[in-house]
Write a structure and sequence with these properties.
Elements (H helix, E strand, L loop, with lengths): L14 H14 L5 E2 L11 H9 L13 H14 L9 E4 L2 H11 L3 E6 L5 H7 L4 E5 L10 H10 L5 E6 L12 H10 L3 E5 L15 H4 L3 E6 L12 E4 L5 H12 L7 H12 L3 H24 L3 E2 L7 E5 L13 H12 L1 E2 L1 E2 L11 E5 L5 H8 L7 H7 L1 H17 L1
Parallel strand pairs: 1-11, 3-4, 3-5, 5-6, 6-7
Antiparallel strand pairs: 2-8, 7-8, 9-10, 10-13, 12-13
Helix pairs in contact: 2-10, 3-10, 6-7, 11-13, 11-15, 14-15
């Protein structure tokens, strides 16, 4: 009988990808599904990058394991400016998505992993695969769903002998909020020599327009991961980058042979095309997509809070955490976030993810909404004509968002 490694036997498919596949299956059966589950940018890849990909379709050679030198130079220049530290191309490694790079970082770094509740769905399973211990630290609504300096300090005091790795994601998936005290957190991380992976995949989607990173205060202990999947809609291109301070170059050197024995190198044409992501001015594109997300998130927040759902306004990205406890407290049959999600999908075709996938206890009726189910190309075109991005805009240009939220609200009112 074939044996599966014990630590892999119960690993499940990523919940974000699983909900997308199941939603597609239901649609193929004729169901109308409102896709508030998978967090995939709805906007088209900037045309200059698409054209550059076409121009480099002939590139067929294996590139350096660390990545195309010209691309790494562009990324180093970009992050030197954004992260307020000096990086050069030797500080950068290119991988098939930041997700893969975070996994390989967890494989290389011998440390217990500290995760705030909530955290992105893949951090813990990756740690389980490489057999790293995971320490969950609860956060709450009042803390903006982020780890406080005090809670990090308390955890570091309890086990001083073990190396510690913290994955920090801000703007955050799943809450859509920004960490309110990165400077305070950096002081504790520095005090206890915590290595930080700053997952900045949503960095350009901060609604304030300012790029905020813990590296501004703790560059020597922070590894930045980012990529092109969220701000420019190129998730399917599968290209990410990890950027290291000189002080952690030993980790980068350990990752290169590991990369050579796993993914070898990222697609050559995509690496050439991605130079345009970091060397061209995309400020107009980012500005208009950001405005659309702000209007949609405000619309959802207003509608849901009006009927009693507890949720914080998103501050970046395209997610919102919603607590249905107070509006469903009389519905005793719904006793877990997974059950709530299953009922909503079956009854009204509304697909979202349960909070338990992000570290919350099963009985917390907290779920994540992703507001990306619309034609991004059309939305940009209409919004570019100086159209006001109001509820009418959402109803006409993001009809699945508008109809889905209305159906959810009607369902809540019916079941209160």
């Amino acid at each position: 009988m074939t044996k599966i490694r014990e630590n892999l036997a119960n690993i499940k498919a990523s919940s974000t990808l699983a909900i997308n596949e199941y939603s597609k299956k239901l649609e193929s059966e004729g169901r109308e599904i409102f896709k508030f589950g998978l967090g995939q940018s709805p906007f088209p890849i900037p045309e200059v990058m698409v054209n550059e990909l076409k121009n480099n379709a002939h590139q067929k050679d294996y590139l350096s394991v660390a990545g195309l030198k010209e691309l790494r130079e562009s990324i180093a220049k970009y992050h030197s400016y954004k992260n307020k530290n000096i990086y050069n191309e030797k500080n950068v490694i290119i991988g098939p998505g930041s997700k893969e790079l975070i996994f390989q970082l967890q494989l290389v770094i011998d440390a217990e992993l500290i995760l705030p509740i909530p955290s992105w769905v893949s951090y813990e399973p990756q740690a389980n695969i490489v057999k790293n211990d995971v320490i969950w630290i609860e956060t709450n609504f009042e803390e903006n769903w982020h780890l406080t300096p005090e809670k990090l300090a308390n955890q570091c005091k309890t086990n001083k002998d073990k190396e510690k790795l913290l994955i920090l994601n801000s703007p955050n998936n799943p809450s859509g909020t920004i960490h309110p005290d990165l400077e305070g957190l950096s002081k504790i991380a520095k005090m206890y020599k915590v290595i930080v992976i700053s997952d900045e995949i949503y960095g350009e989607l901060s609604y304030s327009g300012s790029y905020q990173s813990i590296s501004h205060y703790y560059s020597e202990g922070t590894i930045i991961t980012s990529g092109i999947s969220k701000w420019c809609g190129a998730g399917g291109w599968r290209l990410g980058a990890a950027i290291f301070p000189n002080e952690l170059s030993i980790i980068k050197r350990a990752m290169e042979p590991l990369a050579s024995e796993t993914f070898s190198a990222v697609s050559s044409p995509i690496q050439f095309a991605t130079i345009k992501a970091y060397s061209e001015d995309h400020s107009n594109y980012i500005s208009i997509t950001r405005k659309i997300f702000i209007s949609i998130s405000n619309f959802i927040h207003q509608k849901l809070t009006f009927v009693g759902v507890k949720c914080l306004k998103a501050e970046g990205g395209f997610y919102m955490l919603c607590d249905f406890t107070s509006v469903l407290k009389k519905t005793t049959a719904i006793n877990s976030s997974k059950k709530l999600c299953n009922i909503l999908l079956e009854e009204i075709g509304f697909a979202m993810l349960p909070g338990s996938d992000f570290g919350f206890k099963e009985n917390y009726l907290i779920c994540r909404i992703a507001f990306v189910d619309f034609d991004g190309k059309n939305a940009i075109s209409v919004a570019s004509q100086n159209k006001e991005i109001d509820e009418r805009f959402i109803r006409e240009n993001c009809p699945k968002i508008h109809k889905g939220i209305e159906k959810l609200i009607n369902w809540i009112i019916k079941n209160q």
